[in-house]
Amino acid sequence: MRHHHSSSPSPAPATRTDWRVIKSLTPYLLEFKGRVAAVVVLLVLAKLTNVAVPLVLKEIVDAMSKPQAMLVIPAFLIVGYGLLRLFSTLFGELRDALFAKVTQRAIRRVAIQVFEHLHSLSLRFHLERQTGGVSRDIERGTRGISFLLTFLLFNILPTLLEIGLVAGILFVKYNPWFAIITFATLVLYIAFTLAITEWRMVFRRTMNEMDSKANTRAIDSLINYETVKYFGNERYEVARYDDQMKSWEVSAVRNQTSLAALNAGQSIIIAIGVTLLMLLAADGVVKGTMTVGDLVLVNVYMIQLYMPLHFLGFVYREIKNALADMERMFRLLDENREVQDAPDAQPLLLEKASVRFEHVGFHYDPAREILHEVSFDIPSGHTVAVVGASGAGKSTLSRLLFRFYDVNTGGIFIDGQDIRRVTQASLRAAIGIVPQDTVLFNDTIYYNIAYGRPDSTREEILRAAQSAHIHHFIESLPDGYDTMVGERGLKLSGGEKQRVAIARAILKNPALLIFDEATSALDSKSEKAIQDELRGIAHNRTTLVIAHRLSTVVDAQQILVMDKGRIIERGTHRELLAQQGVYAQMWALQQQEEH
To answer: Are 168 and 356 in contact, with CB atoms under 8 Å apart?
Structure first.
């Protein structure tokens, strides 16, 4: 939050980013050059007709105020007056219709860009971020774009144009004082409005922030509905939500009261201006230098200028808000991807799909090392298993291999290519992962399996489901493959979800497989069934198994035992038992548990 300098004398950085945000919209405007040009022409026409109206009105008033006026009603003037009124609105409507496509397209482009970018940010960003808040940011930002484009073109530019035209007419036709007073009033009015609005922005911002926080709080609480119920903490949750709403209320009240102050001030300034002008004009009429029509003309102009300006505070505030919202959204665009493709990254060339970890060291923050000097090979077509207590750094291996994070020291190689030198897309296409907790999309089971390779045929998808031993289960459901998986996969048991994940991985048909405690959600019977499956899938494929239960890794060609981020023992099941070390102890313990 670097917005708190509304009172301090240095608003420069804010305006600089504002300009940057406005500049970032130019390409979207240029996409439809013809439309934008037509819009500007219509805009000028609308203003010209608008300024002509009082001139005609003056002629009518003057014609009517001559004694013999009853004889000739200036019909053409009255009709002309009506037509001008009509056109000034019509041009405006036409302009809006033409411009709609420009704004909506810009919104669509930016939203896509942000969405794409969010997917390219590091896992760390997403683990630290609250999804509810991010989606609100995107929503507000895209709304801001539409607002900004519409108002800059339709409110600010035309108003400036109109002020110029009116000041010109008054200056040429009458005593220069008219133009001077009009101008002075407007300048004062604008300055006052902007100053007060700036001061109010702070309340508005806090209000928005509180709103986002309360929203995140509410969503979070509802997502964890079960947990709230288990602990009977409904009252507590409501109280926490109310705390957030309380601070929102304070900001909202300030927001409203300061608005009243703004409006009052605006009215006072305009009233003084109009009074001065009318005094001048009335004086002119009395002295005979001006007609009653002139008096009407001056008054109408003043009111006409005041109308769009009455909006000014609102527009300015909304534009500032839109800019702040867009800046938040563009700041999401500036969030750096921690993991970037090297400038000359080549696609991964797979020959044998052998994997090598060389002296890999990794930490999220230097104080706490997660992996230390980890080296091992997975020869092509072999299965290597990693076992160890939780927190030993096992799952980090799969995240590093998938390049969610980059290693701090050492390197990871696939077929001799450093994974940091190849494109992320090609690397990830080669790896299939069955994670520890499967998250499913709120869509059909079919969609969730097909997600492994969205362009596969129905046969392939059914085959994958059969290999994962879930086909019969799906067929037994009333809607079969079209059964909706509830949000976050709530309607399926852990084992069923796991099987969907396995089917997904089979469908992807990757060269490298990673099972991250893939069977931890299963009871031992289904575990055995799936194990055979996994064995079948892993056959002749380079596989990394991260396991909690040792019975799942007995057949691995090599087992690594990890502790506190180091590999402390390695070998086959037999060799490790013979060593009588940590692995042998773990094995003995788990054997007891199962009997």
So the answer is: no
Helix axes 176-223, 131-151, angle to 10 degrees: 160
Q: Where in the chain is the domain with CATH 1.20.1560.10?
A: 16-334
Cα angle: 148, vertex 149, 151; to 5 degrees: 65
* 3-class state of residue 375 by DSSP: strand
DSSP three-state, residue 513 = strand
pLDDT digits (tens, 9 = 90+) for 181-222: 888 888 898 888 888 888 887 887 788 888 888 888 888 888
Rounded-to-5 percentages of helix, strand, coil across the chain: 65, 10, 25
* CATH class (in words) of the domain with range 16-334: mainly alpha
Task: Report the distance separating Cα 351 and Cα 269, nearest Å.
Answer: 79
Cβ of 315: how many Cβ atoms within 10 Å?
22
For 40-77, the pLDDT digits (tens) are 788 778 778 777 777 777 777 777 776 665 556 667 77
Distance CA(503)–CA(284), nearest Å, equals 90
Where are the domain boundaries for CATH 3.40.50.300 in the chain?
355-594
The DSSP secondary structure of 137-154, one letter per residue, reads: HHHHHHHHHHHHHHHIII
Options 3.30.1480.10, 3.40.50.300, 3.40.50.2300, 3.10.290.10; CATH of 355-594: 3.40.50.300
Q: Cα–Cα distance between 552 and 555 in angstroms, integer?
A: 8
How does strand 417-418 pair with strand 431-434? unpaired
Q: And the tokens for 107?
A: 């919104």
Radius of gyration of the chain from its Cα atoms, rounded to whole angstroms: 35
